[in-house]
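Here is an idea for our session: we take a single protein and study its fold together. Which protein we use is up to you, so please pick one and set it down. Once you have written the record down, we can walk along the chain together:
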Amino acid sequence: MSKPRKKYNPRKQRQVWAGESENAFAKVFVLASTERLSQQEINSLSLSMLMSLDTLRSSWCPTSFNLIGHFYRVARIVATEMKIGLLNDACDAAWRVLQDLHETDGNPVPTADQYDVLRYLLDALLALLPEIPLPLWVMAEESSRESIKLRMTEQYMLLPEWARLAAIDVLSGKTVKDLAATLERTEKEVSENVRTAGAILYTLRADSTLPFPSNVTKLRKLGEQLLPVAAQYELAIKQLRRAA
């Protein structure tokens, strides 16, 4: 699946905690909280982290890549706010791997060394979960999700208009073959761009219960869930154009 070529920066995030002073009092209470994640929540997070990494190890999966990027950003905030040097170093190494994977054309999978770096970060974060104040974890996750939403919105707007509209047509039931003929483009080009747009819409929908649309057939089956998302962002694009 082709990827928009805008440079990936997993460090880009809403700086809600790290480096800000306007919420200093709230920050003190967050860090001093004695609330912690439950064992059930820790087990669920552990499963989510490790399954995402194992999936990415075998084949390129945007959803798994984004989820690992999400945990990277959470780890970065935790490391900064709790002043954990080793976790911060693990984040530095993971950031380089995530950037390398994003900038690799085609369908990249981590090398053995890259996998070890990402696994080390996730293991370090998992080991710290029982010690992280629950309010800090919640705020870090919210900040990271907002970052993903902003990045996916940027990537959706970078797609050619014909590709976005073709994805909407596929979600509405049309075939790639018919669209290729109408657009006077190859079926391969239409399919790749439609799947890219579909993956972005899937991420913006943020519903992990939905199957990832790894091909056009699976994407078409998500029309009911993704068409409202596409309509929302197409309306936003039109409004931006009118305001320009």
Observations:
- The two ends are 32 Å apart (CA to CA).
- The CA atoms of residues 33 and 132 lie 9 Å apart.
- The chain is about 70% helix and 0% strand.
